[in-house]
Amino acid sequence: MKARVTVYPRREILDPQGKAIQGALSRIGFSEVREVRAGKSFEIDLGTDDAQSAGERLAQMCEKLLANTVVEEYRIELVNGAGA
Amino acid sequence: MKARVTVYPRREILDPQGKAIQGALSRIGFSEVREVRAGKSFEIDLGTDDAQSAGERLAQMCEKLLANTVVEEYRIELVNGAGA
To answer: pLDDT category, B2, cuts 50, 70, 90?
Structure first.
């Protein structure tokens, strides 16, 4: 089963990287961009087909390694087998 | 309209960051992880409601700034209004 984990700065935390990208886009002609948030994305291939246990294990990975939950929030999406 | 842009190293390019994360996960008990790919994610708020022009503009942003298309590939997803 594959999963996608996305990690973003929390809404209440400043996102200087996103702000810088927005500024850069604006300067090269993309002035319609209102806001950019910059985060990380991980595609993870798990050796299990059980969606529920996969979701639990992925949440543990996020808490322990992939995200700093003090300043970041994460989202887990199961890519195949998500309906199980 | 909001969009999500994901940028990953191309399949044929080594992904040392993903490899390092996989190793770290394995060492802390997540040995079921077969592969990790590490990339970037951008959430972009555009001042337009036209899905087609939004898609075109986002592709230009990727080519010009968000991705280095020599070594990276990008994917664009429109988050709302995607069905238009």
So the answer is: very high
Euclidean distance between CA atoms B20 and B17, whole angstroms: 5
> Does the ipTM surpass 0.95?
no
The domain limits of chain B are 2-78
The CATH number of domain B2-78 is 3.30.1280.10:
yes
Query: Can you give the pTM of this predicted structure?
Result: 0.89
Q: Which residues of chain B does A43 touch, with a Cβ-Cβ cutoff of 8 Å?
A: 8, 35-37, 39
Contact B6 A41 (CB under 8 A): yes
Rounded to the nearest angstrom, the gap between the alpha carbon of residue A6 and the centroid of all alpha carbons in its chain is: 1
Q: Is A70 on the interface with B (CB under 8 A)?
A: no
